[in-house]
Amino acid sequence: MSLYFLLIFSILVTEMVFFILLGLPLPTKYRKPLTLLIIKPFRNQTVQVTIKCIIVFVFVLFADCVSKLMTLNEELYSKKRGEGIFGETTGGGGGGAFLSSGARADIYSRKFYAQRNMYLTGITLFLSLCVTRIFGLVIELLDLKAKYRKVDPTPKNSLSKSELLEEIKTLDDKIETLKTKSLNLQQKE
Predict the structure, then answer these.
(1) pTM
(2) Domain edges within the chain
(3) Do the beta carbons of residue 91 and residue 82 sit within 8 Å?
């Protein structure tokens, strides 16, 4: 694996660690300091520009891997049809050209490496989007929990115990009068 794909793999592992840390069901007591510790470096403008440049670099490598894979597929299928590299036909009799096992193994190994690199860069791009969204959701969750805790749970018009008992008594009286009216209406029918 070349150096830049090794770096992309390390970025992928780092993103997976961030994803796991942010996805753990931790209590707010531990989640808030952990999230703030993780997010703190990413709020720096220089770090954000660097991350955007790295994402563009990974996207360029992804596009390169896709084009390389398409070229390898064309080469493989053109040799199976009996055409040479430049489109000329090889061999007679209408059959495909004979590929030696070494040539076939070479093409398949290059195809495997191209697919591996494409999947590596594609998953790195996808996970970077996921981690960015998870960061946003966790910050929003922490803000909403903080707002919820700031709200006073006691109502503004709290009544004393005697006032509540008196209100309950009046409501019970209203219920009794409604019951009697209901019985009277049923008896009239």
Answers:
(1) 0.64
(2) 3-151, 159-189
(3) yes
